[in-house]
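## retry 2 of 3
previous attempt timed out at serialization; input unchanged, resubmitting
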Amino acid sequence: MILIQQFSVILYKKLGVPNDQIALAGVDAIESAQMISDAQGRQVSAVRRRSTFVVAAFIGFIVGVGLALLWDELRARRGAREAAA
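## retry succeeded, writing output
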């Protein structure tokens, strides 16, 4: 295909066609739509063992940080209550 385009550019130059028309002919050939094969849908599963593990680890991290903050707050309240008593 590229060889045909190069040949047509050489031919256009020998015939005295202006450069902008040569460029336009090249763009027209490059941007022409071609149907190579019919579009077909297929089902792709997004669930994989690695992605499941990453999501589970992230959720576990978030829950762990939340529980650590809650535990720290409960210990601080309990310590303040025992100190006041």
